[in-house]
Amino acid sequence: MKTQFLALLSILVLSSCKNSDKIERENQSDIYSVASEDREMNDAIKKANETLSDFNKALSNPKAEDAALKVAFKTSEGVEHIWVSEIKYKDGQYSGILDNEPEYITQYNAGDTVKIDQSKISDWMYLVDGKLFGGYTIRVLRDRMDEEQRKQLDAESGMKID
After folding, report:
1. In this predicted model, what pLDDT tens digit does every residue of 61-91 receive, in sequence order?
2. Are 35 and 107 in contact (CB under 8 A)?
3. d(CA 88, CA 67)
4. Which of 8, 11, 45, 73 is the most buried (most CB within 10 A)?
């Protein structure tokens, strides 16, 4: 799993934050803060939900790798979005492993198995031959980076993002 990459792009949505502010944490992956009223990010979340059936099909595709869902968790600070990997889908219920250490969520830690409420899904992704499918919120954040940051992100992730 591209856990380090997904953790890098975990998003903390707080109504008091500016667009795409980066929160650096000692010995932890960075988090990008995005205002809850950020139109581009909300459009990306909407598109992810509208295309969730594409993700479901990929779960049974042997060529699809690193399938993950981004899930919104309510906190006292607002909403924290965290990637969940090793996705299982059984009887209409998703579950998986929390990919990184939360900043504000207190009931879970990185590595915990979580059940996923479908209404809380804010993005999905998988790779085929290194090419990113889905990852709509990833694309928004990547588009906001300068050229040097994008190159670094692409090199570190190893993903092909068009």
Report:
1. 999 999 999 999 998 878 899 999 999 999 9
2. no
3. 10
4. 11
Distance in angstroms (rounded) separating the CA atoms of residues 49 and 31: 22
Helix (H, G, I), strand (E, B) or coil at 118: helix
Helices 136-143 and 39-50: crossing angle, nearest 10°? 150
Cα three-residue angle 108-19-37, rounded to 5 degrees: 80
Provide the greatest CA pair distance for the chain. 44
Give the torsion sign (CA, 18, 118, 60, 113). positive
pLDDT tens-digit profile of 17-29? 334 465 565 665 5
Structure token digits, residue 71: 């899930």
Going by DSSP bridges, is the β-strand pair 31-34/11-13 parallel, antiparallel, or unpaired? parallel
Beta strand extents in the chain (DSSP E only) = 11-13, 21-23, 31-34, 64-75, 78-90, 93-98, 113-116, 121-128, 131-134
pTM more than 0.85:
no
Strands, DSSP E only, in 7-63? Answer: 11-13, 21-23, 31-34
β-bridge partners, 127: 65, 132
